[in-house]
Amino acid sequence: MAPLLVAGIDFGTTYSGWSFSFKHEFELDPTKVATKRWYGDQLVSMKAPTCVLIEPDGETFSAFGFDAETKYTHLVEAEEHDKWYFFKRFKMQLYNKDIKRDMKIEDETGKKLNAQLVFSSSIRFLKDDVLKVIGDRIEGVITSEEISWVLTVPAIWDVGAKQFMREAADMAGISSDKLILALEPEAAAIYCRHIPAKKGEEGSLSTFKTGSKFLVVDAGGGTVDIAVQEVTDNGSMKNIYKASGGDWGGTKVDEAYVKFLERILGMDSIDEFKRSNMEDYMLMIRDFEIKKREVDPQKSDKPVVAIKADKLKVDMDVVRNIFKIQIEAIVDHVSNLLDQSTIVEIGAIVLVGGFNDCPLLQQSFKSKFDDHTIIVPNDADLAVFKGAVIFGHKPELISQRVSIYTNGIEIRVPFIEHVHKESYKIKDEDGKVR
User: Fold this and answer.
1) What is the rounded CA–CA span in Å between residue 279 and residue 284?
2) pLDDT tens for residues 66-108?
3) What is the pLDDT of residue 314?
4) Residue partners of 271: CB distance under 8 A and separation at least 6
5) What is the three-state SS of 374-404?
6) What percent of the chain has a predicted confidence (pLDDT) above 70?
7) Is residue 266 packed enough to be buried (19+ CB in 10 Å), middle (13-18) or exposed (0-12)?
8) Where exactly are the structural domains of the chain?
9) Per-residue b/e over 218-230, b at no fewer than 16 CB within 10 Å?
């Protein structure tokens, strides 16, 4: 039986959030998905920072998101933070790692706690928060049996990391039989497929016919997740190439920015600023998060680096250099994918995720792939968790995935030109090419 309500949790490296829709809302308009506005100082956001504060006993949850940042800042300024556990952008500690149930992860000061405790505490907060909002919105009681939960995970994560998230969700009170894991680029593609084309709009996934192929680039804070999809005859999508990507997300640009400041001002100065003025340091990084989405690639009217009043003025060539390594890694990887002989007739490249809000990254795609349609939805950073809710209502929208692992059943199979690598070609004792 279809759930009365689907709630999605987008657990990101930099930011996290939740969304939901009732069954009747989905039937009227699948894209009508409720989300929350989070407030931090003067910032209003559709997501909260992925950070959690645990009390000195190493077990008790204290705060999540903006509240965790603010409380930890006050602890630092009062020099009372040493015994507390503050975890920020910790999702990446599951990427490319040998995952174990008893593994520990480090907080901002190097102290270690059980990873499942940290992840489950965060998921529990997001789950309880969405349930509170739902409870305030409707009269009567909605039971756990009537709710289906969707948790987003990177497609490039291995099965161990995905299983870890499933078990962390179970610890947070979301039973496995009520949980669906949604691969982030697939969820984004589902949302984009449901956005109606605007009049005169060039390229829209909603208008793609059966057999149309497109590539989804989900560039978030930690990972860049890439999926290649094909529209099937019933309007659903199938994955036609293994998930790929890497750790080229926007947080690497933040790190490059801090290193840039260290070269100008000295590492000791930045460390002292961080120690003595933690709140201002966090505001600076948060402000850069916003600024990097507003960079004008065409603008270049400043001296190389200058301070004017209370502003740091930086020439566009310097800014490009801060972004360069990550953008080149993403664009080169997509270019190599499109060169694969097994992937043909890609009609469009869809850019989603918070990092894809950056004009520099968009411009790089449009310049490099000028023979492809580049689609960037207006709410690119919300596409994943809105698509996750749609997927929860209708899981059959994804009809096929390419398995990460395969079992060999035969050796020395016949060699197929332009499919198999040339370096694999051999001749057997009968002279047949295999």
Assistant:
1) 9
2) 999 999 999 988 889 999 999 999 999 999 899 999 999 999 9
3) 86
4) none
5) EECCCCHHHHHHHHHHHHHHCHHHEEECCCC
6) 96
7) exposed
8) 5-184
9) bbbbbbbbbbbbb
At the second CATH level, the architecture of 5-184 is 2-Layer Sandwich (3.30)
If you average pLDDT over residues 52-62, what whole number do you get? 97
Q: Is the pTM of this model over 0.85?
A: yes
Could you give the CA distance from residue 283 to residue 45 in angstroms, rounded to a whole number?
Answer: 14
Distance, CA of 258 to CA of 289 (rounded, Å): 12
Contacts of 251 (CB under 8 A, 6+ apart): 13, 14, 89, 92, 221, 222
Sign of the Cα pseudo-torsion (147, 150, 151, 157, in order): positive
User: What whole-number distance in Å separates Cα of residue 224 and Cα of residue 353?
Assistant: 9
Cβ neighbours of 9 (radius 10 Å): 27
Q: What are the residues facing 9 on neighbouring strands?
A: 18, 151
Residue 289 or residue 92, greater confidence:
92
Amino acid residing at 203? G
Answer yes or no: are the C-beta atoms of 365 and 205 closer than 8 Å: no
Q: Which of 140-154, 155-169, 187-201, 227-241 is the least confident region?
A: 187-201
